Amino acid sequence: MIDKSSASWQKNPIWLRILFWGSNKVWMNKKSQAIMFEWILMIGAIITLLLGFTYPNPVKAEVLLNMSYAFLLSAYLWAVLIRLSDKYSIWRSV
User: Fold this and answer.
1) In a domain, 92, yes or no
2) Helix/strand/coil (H, E, C) string of the chain?
3) Structural domains counted in the chain
4) Which of 21, 45, 64, 65 is 20 to 30 A away from residue 71, measured at CA?
5) Model confidence pLDDT, tens digit, residues 5-50
């Protein structure tokens, strides 16, 4: 859990606090949930990549490959966000 009422949370940069706006209420209550979502994005990238290479219609295959790139980019950005949260120690240790 992220303890947003602590003094250490208030010391974090404003851009980091903005990135985690809504957490604990809307999404990402725990770090394990954030890592699970990262895995879901990676699995989506792999599935759409495989489908894109094997789909017989080239137009739809291109759409699937573009979706794969979008999944991969999202997974990378999500991983960066998780690592930033580790760097700034925003996860509450239970």
Assistant:
1) no
2) CECCCCHHHHHCCHHHHHHCCCECCCECCCHHHHHHHHHHHHHHHHHHHHHHHHCCCHHHHHHHHHHHHHHHHHHHHHHHHHHHHHHCCCECCC
3) 1
4) 21
5) 566 666 777 787 777 765 555 566 678 888 999 999 999 999 999 9
